[in-house]
Amino acid sequence: MRLRSKGPITPVNRGRVLLANLPPGSYHSEDDHENDSDSSSSVLALDEPPEHLRRSSNRDAPIPVDSDNDNAGGDGEQDLLNVETPDQRRDGGIMEENYRKRLLEDLNDSEEEEEEDADYIPHGRAKRLRPDRFADVQGSLSPLTFPRPSSPFSEAGSSVPDDFPAAVVVTAVGPSAPQYATVTAESFLADILEVLPDLDPAWALQVATAELSTGARNVVSRTVDMALDMEAGYPKIKEVSKVKGKDKEKRSDEGYLGLVYRKDRRLGAIYLSKALATLEDVFPLIPVPHIRATLFSLSCLYAPTYFRLVEHGQTIPRPYAELKRPRPVGKGKGKAARELVTLSSQSSAAGKDDKGSTEFDREKAFVEKTVAERRAENDRKIAKRVAQEEAAENGTGIECGCCFDQVLFEDTYQCAEGHLFCQICTTTHAETKLGEQQTVSY
């Protein structure tokens, strides 16, 4: 800090100025009375200050004084003494810090007042609008004018397809825009069947799923066009009466081979006892534990167990250890007969009619009929193969016009030109023509 003196310079100030302009060190002037003979006085530099100057010496902290302003007005001595003390500097810093705190508090109070405003939304924080705020709004802020959300069809050029079903749109309550649920092929099936009522729903659903996976817009129109463009005609739904008749016929022929056909009647103690006894007699080389395990694994039903044991007997290696000697026939029946007498007496005493016994007799007759038919069919195949081999050896067969093989006359087919063909070549030719959508003629 540079001090400037104002007003007249006193002897005290003059001495201070002289000491400030000299090099650092202690100085002492000679006595005027001792040097009266000399016309000029000299200044001597001392190594140490004298005793009367040691306490007021400024050797360690000299005060710089600007000697250019010696003629300035004012009280110079008082201005030199007006130096800021450490206490004053500390008080000034405290005042400045308090002023800063007051400014920050004022800023925080103003921000809190702004946040209390209902229409104020802080930056970076989403504020959800209530539906009742739009009760009387008419204009650009109306929920009906909000932009529609993006959908899976945005990339195709339009946010909503032309044939997009209205049932898929889910309208939300409030200002939020309508949202779209997951679009599936079933949502288009009703519109497709409205155009083509006799179209097969399974085929239509398959085509709609494929079109939807490719991102097509007009799923309904594309499916209908694809069905109408088929040369052989689009697949139609089957008639209910014919389907029921076929299912009924199939059920009557192969019903007992299933596990659910007349299951409510194929049960009871007598049914189970008869089934075990009959299976033990029909398969005398199969151990009884294996027969019972197979029967229990097939819901204790006789027909499925019978044909499963036949398959086990034809499997190599067999899933059981075959008995060295066959089981005596009638052993199972005698044991079952005794059990039947006991069970029948108990049922009669209880006043109950066991329907399982009658149902087992029907199921057993079905098994015997099926076994006889399969055996006869197998015998016909064997006899036919033997006859073909003999005709080929003797040369009495008919040569096929396609494969030139020797076949029996009853197994040939004649075309319009009189050529004979075997059954295999004729079937292959018919399948090829049908695949090429051509007419087959003989």
UniProtKB/TrEMBL annotation:
Organism whose genome encodes this protein: Kwoniella newhampshirensis
Residues that span the membrane, as ranges: none
Residue span of region Disordered: 1-132
Comp. bias regions, Acidic residues: 106-119
Record-given protein name: E3 ubiquitin-protein ligase RNF216 UBA domain-containing protein
Source domain of life: Eukaryota
CDD domains reported in the protein's UniProt record: RING-HC_RBR_RNF216
InterPro entries (alphabetical): RING-HC_RBR_RNF216, UBA_RNF216
Biased composition (Basic and acidic residues): 49-58, 86-105
Domain (E3 ubiquitin-protein ligase RNF216 UBA) ranges: 271-395
